[in-house]
Amino acid sequence: MKKAAAEDFPQARPDYRTALTRYRALTEDHPGSRAAHRVHDSLDTYYKAIAAPYAEADHCGAVAPLEYLRDVPKSIDRDVLGSLATWPDKPLAVSLLKCGTGKLGIAESDGRGGELGQLLRTFPKSAQAAEVTPAVRAAVDKRTADLAGAEPCRATDELRRIGDTAKALPEPAPGRLGGDVNKAVRNGVYACGMDQFEDSKFAAARTTLADFASTYKSDKRGARARQVAIAAEIAEQRPSAGAQLPPAGSPGGARMQMVISNDGPGPVEILYTGPVTGRVTIGGCGSCSTYGSEAAGSSKACNASGKSYPKETLRLPAGTYHFLHKPGGAQATARSRAAGSSIQPGYTYTQCSYVVSSGLGADL
User: By CB neighbour count within 10 A (0-12 exposed, 13-18 middle, 19+ buried), where does 244 fall?
Assistant: First the structure.
């Protein structure tokens, strides 16, 4: 027993089984012997040795040993065990609760709710089982508070893991917890995307905020998420576009015309950010073709006499803008083009988008 007690439970298990077999033989084969009468006291020592992780508050490490002890009555008569027969129940319930709550948000779901699921299935009427739902709510509340901190993306990932655990718990826990977790995750995704933008992680911000807008279509923050996602996509190629979050509102005052024409055979999408942010798609020019060089496109695009080019007119307040021209259709794999432009009061501006053999060109 001393050797087994000095080892981790998985390594010591064979020795514990051997000792249990000997105790059983004594009680069944020599019931009247002095050794048989000492079995109960020996079992008390046996239980304490195996349950040592619980006594040391190593609750995750205590689960397997306590489960083993709950099975001992299958090998030794309950009359011999006395109160030891049911002693592991409460320590196991406590360990499952403390281990499971300690893993909330940290461990990936095993599809069964982990130790908390095991607690609810094994001891559904225990005092510890009644603590599961409040404990999960407390974990959600803590991560929700963390969304306003320095690492909202980490907090959101933890909320997702908590949600996965909650879904796998036996009813009625998922129904009681689902709304709280889903709301927290939704807030987390939005906070994460905004934080990624402010940290200049523009590709990640674009993906996160675009997913937010498409996943939570009824959320009032969807328009803002799409707006910042546009700025993030432009900033991927033109980092100055992400120097600060785009304005949430639209300024008053006069607006200037920006006429954008397309001299490319396929459609082109124009993204812009500045005092206002948005996107517009211009259809392809059926009679247009690609240019062999940037120089040829710059000098000839949108200048053919008598040709009607597809165009869109933007009405923009004055200020500094960043534009991204994205080719579509057959030219969708062509290189996009980003640039900046200053819009001054009292002027009408033009842009021309065209395709060259090496990608997309644009006179901005």
Answer: exposed
Q: Euclidean distance between the first and final Cα of the chain, in Å?
A: 83
Helices (H) and strands (E) in the chain, counts: 15, 8
Which residues have C-beta within 8 Å of that of residue 28, sequence separation ≥ 6? Answer: none
Is the bond leading into 265 cis (omega within 30 degrees of zero)?
no
Count of CB atoms within 10 A of residue 343's CB?
A: 19
Q: What are the residues facing 350 on neighbouring strands?
A: 259
Residue 259's DSSP bridge partners are: 313, 350
Tell me the pairing of strands 268-273 and 319-327.
Answer: antiparallel
**Distance from C-alpha of 144 to C-alpha of 141, rounded to nearest angstrom:** 5
Token pair 């869109």: residue: 312
Residue 216's region, left for phi above 0, alpha for psi from -120 to 50, else beta, is beta
Identify which of 334, 285, 274 has the alpha carbon closest to the alpha carbon of residue 312: 285
Structure tokens at 9: 């439970």
Q: What contacts 24+ positions apart, CB below 8 Å, involve 22-30?
A: 23/76, 24/75, 24/76, 27/76, 27/77, 27/80
Asked if 242 and 235 count as a contact pair (C-beta separation under 8 A), the reply is yes
Give the number of residues written for the chain: 364
The C-alpha atoms of residue 75 and residue 64 are separated, in whole angstroms, by 17
Q: Whole-model pTM?
A: 0.85
Q: How far apart are CA 277 and CA 192, in angstroms?
A: 20
User: What is the per-residue pLDDT across 248-293, written as a single tens digit (0 to 9) for each?
Assistant: 988 888 899 999 999 998 999 999 999 999 999 999 998 898 888 8
DSSP class of residue 242? G
Per the CB < 8 A criterion, the answer to whether 159 and 143 are in contact is yes
Element of type H or E holding 342: strand 337-343
Q: Which amino acid is at 46?
A: Y
Beta bridge partners, 362, equal 353
Query: What would the pLDDT profile of 321-330 be if each residue is shown by its tens digit?
Result: 999 998 886 5
Tokens 């239980």, residue? 47
Distance CA(136)–CA(174), nearest Å, equals 11
